[in-house]
From TrEMBL:
SUPFAM superfamilies, per the entry: Class I glutamine amidotransferase-like (SSF52317)
One Pfam family cited in the UniProt record for this chain: GATase
Protein name per Swiss-Prot or TrEMBL: Glutamine amidotransferase
Organism whose genome encodes this protein: Microbacterium dextranolyticum
Annotated coiled-coil segments of the chain: none
InterPro entries given in the database record: ChyE-like (IPR044992), Class_I_gatase-like (IPR029062), GATASE (IPR017926)
């Protein structure tokens, strides 16, 4: 089997390594079959998609909608590299799955409206499949309504016609979409469990996701409901596209 490629952007080692371990756990892939590239640490360089079964993009503190003057040189480089790769991905309809930051990257490539209108505090929310989502191979077998981990400062306000809405939410309407047949993005985090998102809450306590004194309530918020289904979406992606 050709490996899958994980593009990561977290600069902090603990949440970065835990994210990689979570992707391995929920996809069923090991280190040889899930190749990680930490883009915040080094340039991506040329990527031949024919070397891979598919591409994942993990989450991170970057916001696609930030004004250019507020973006670091590293963020600008990372965005440029992912954007260049997405040109090839979208042209080929190549298997791609972006989690949280994937909405910003794919949405930007499509010309979507991305802003802070539908930001969500870190928590567990209930989302629901659309009619198209019920028919999508990655979501078959999931209940129509299921829980998911969220926490983001930006989201898609207007989904372009080129994208198909698969999962919607109450506070954030665009929770998962597909472009073509094989390019996916979620606003929620299918790669998380309670321990993993708790690590991120502590690591990013001063990144503006919640205010001072709200650490304990935020940690409690991600434990208010179980999240048993979303990891299966990643496993379904691998099962569909491994080659």
């Amino acid at each position: 089997m050709k490996p899958f490629l994980l593009l990561a952007t977290r600069a902090e080692d603990v949440p970065a390594d835990e994210e990689y371990a979570l992707f391995q756990r929920f996809t069923g892939l090991d280190e040889s079959s899930l190749v990680r590239r930490r883009l915040e640490a080094e340039p991506l360089g040329p990527v031949d998609l024919d070397d891979y079964s598919g591409v994942f993009v993990g989450g991170g503190p970057f916001n696609a909608s930030d004004p250019i003057e507020k973006k670091s040189a590293v963020q600008q480089r990372v965005e440029s590299e992912i954007a260049a790769l997405l040109v090839d991905v979208l042209a080929r309809d190549f298997p791609f799955f972006g989690a949280c930051y994937g909405v910003g990257t794919v949405g930007t490539a499509l010309g979507a409206t991305i802003d802070g209108t539908h930001r969500e505090p870190i928590s567990v929310v209930e989302v629901c499949r659309t009619e198209a989502g019920r028919a999508d191979p990655l979501l078959r077998g999931l209940p129509d309504r299921f829980t998911a981990f969220v926490g983001h400062k930006e989201a898609i306000t207007v989904l372009p016609p080129a994208a198909t809405l698969l999962v919607r939410g109450e506070a954030c309407p665009v929770q998962m979409f597909r472009v073509g047949h094989n390019v996916y993005a979620t606003q929620f985090h299918p790669e998380c469990d309670v321990e993993g998102i708790s690590t991120r809450i502590r690591a990013y306590a001063h990144h503006g996701y919640f205010g001072g004194g709200e650490l304990d309530p935020t940690l409690a918020a991600v434990r208010r409901l179980p999240v048993p289904h979303t990891g299966g979406i990643l496993r379904a992606f691998v099962e569909r596209y491994a080659r």
